[in-house]
Q: What sequence folds into this?
């Protein structure tokens, strides 16, 4: 059977099984086993096992559960609430100050945790009631929380960057450096948009009452202490990587120690908190590992069948200039982001896309930044849009899912603007890694 027909059958089977509600991990593993039996017979099954083992036994993969554990401990120790209170002093008098403050907190939280689920939930619990109480426009408040919370995919130590680096065989240290400026670019676009809209129409983001801003000096000093732990954790984790003191995996362990120390300092370290953090970590990492097993098994047998080579040739042979081929890839990722989780997209597409990117003369580190910015869009776009579902879980009952999806469109537009800027000016992503080199 020609590879073109096999590819169409595989894609058709994937779509049908996804529509039937079968988890993507089981879809990938099932298709991998069926293809192996059809192509190589029962004797080929050990190849599936060796492919899976080869990926999950990578030493750097240990960083994924460690960074997730660090995020879960920080989420449950109350560091984010202190951070939010401290930021009130910095943004309280700006147009849309509470929304600006929320975005700044999201950036710092992203640098502490690297995952978005906890960010959106925490911001939904802490910031949304505050903005609604002050009379903020509901759509603006909802959009800020969803977009700001999704910055965890961009700001190091992002789990998305880790999984991409493992899949594409790229230096994770370089990926972390490359994502810093584009992540700050997105955060700046959000802040600029909020300030402009609230300047043009102050009713969208009324300032906090004067009595809340007139904080005594002693209270200001107490609140500013809330910035110390987050900053120390960021310096502890990222400084150990960029300073050459620790590898990415070791720095993840350092981050866990820092999170435990911060919880102890806050007197929040107890068995109940640790148990909850460990359960949440295992649940999150379990999804990642199962998707990794299924996708890698599928990619392994599909590669043996000649499928990945066929798709690479198909992309590279398009009658388009190199930038046009990259735009086609971006369009494919945007469509997949509406229906598939980022882990599945990364594991399925990067073994095909990255060799094409290299053959076109582009830097795979730059392409990873584009991928992460693309996944930012996927966190907000219906029908998948996980950020919307995270927020719905903690928002007031009168906030509907339809209202949440309707509120994020301006921020999706800002994400596309940021993606376009980095696409046209690769130096934004590659400048910091070039300094490191």
A:
């Amino acid at each position: 059977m020609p590879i073109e027909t096999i590819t169409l059958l595989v894609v058709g089977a994937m779509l049908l099984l996804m529509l039937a509600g079968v988890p993507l991990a089981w879809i990938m593993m099932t298709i991998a086993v069926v293809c192996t039996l059809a192509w190589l017979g029962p004797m080929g099954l050990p190849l599936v096992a060796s492919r899976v083992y080869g990926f999950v036994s990578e030493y750097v993969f240990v960083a994924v559960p460690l960074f997730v554990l660090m995020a879960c401990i920080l989420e449950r120790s109350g560091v984010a609430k202190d951070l939010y209170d401290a930021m009130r002093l910095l943004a309280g008098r700006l147009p849309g100050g509470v929304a600006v403050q929320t975005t700044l907190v999201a950036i710092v939280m992203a640098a502490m945790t690297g995952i978005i689920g906890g960010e959106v939930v925490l911001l939904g619990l802490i910031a949304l009631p505050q903005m609604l109480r002050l009379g903020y426009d509901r759509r603006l408040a909802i959009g800020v929380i969803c977009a700001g919370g999704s910055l965890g995919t961009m700001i190091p130590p992002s789990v998305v960057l880790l999984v991409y680096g493992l899949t594409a065989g790229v230096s994770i240290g370089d990926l972390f450096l490359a994502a810093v400026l584009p992540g700050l670019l997105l955060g700046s676009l959000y802040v600029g948009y909020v300030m402009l809209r609230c300047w043009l129409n102050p009713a969208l983001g009324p300032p906090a009452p004067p009595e809340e801003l007139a904080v005594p000096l002693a209270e200001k000093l107490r609140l500013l202490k809330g910035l110390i732990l987050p900053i120390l954790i960021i310096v502890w984790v990222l400084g150990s990587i960029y300073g050459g003191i620790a590898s990415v995996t070791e720095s993840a362990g350092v981050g866990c120690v820092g999170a435990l120390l911060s919880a102890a300092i806050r007197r929040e370290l107890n068995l109940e908190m640790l148990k909850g953090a460990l359960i949440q970590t295992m649940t999150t990492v379990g999804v990642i590992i199962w998707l990794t097993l299924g996708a890698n098994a599928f990619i392994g047998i599909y590669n043996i069948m000649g499928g990945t080579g066929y798709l690479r040739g198909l992309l590279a042979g398009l009658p388009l200039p190199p930038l046009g081929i990259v735009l086609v890839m971006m369009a494919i990722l945007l469509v997949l982001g509406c229906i598939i989780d980022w882990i599945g997209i990364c594991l399925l597409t990067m073994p095909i896309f990255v060799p094409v990117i290299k053959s076109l003369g582009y830097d795979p580190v730059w392409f990873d930044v584009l991928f992460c910015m693309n996944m930012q869009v996927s966190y907000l776009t219906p029908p998948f849009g996980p950020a919307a579902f995270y927020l719905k879980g903690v928002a007031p009952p009168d906030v509907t899912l339809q209202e949440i999806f309707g509120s994020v469109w301006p921020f999706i537009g800002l994400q596309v603007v940021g993606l376009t800027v980095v696409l046209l000016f690769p130096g934004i992503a590659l400048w910091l890694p070039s300094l490191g080199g």
The mean pLDDT is 82. The radius of gyration is 22 Å. The CA atoms of residues 392 and 398 lie 10 Å apart. The first helix runs from residue 3 to 19.
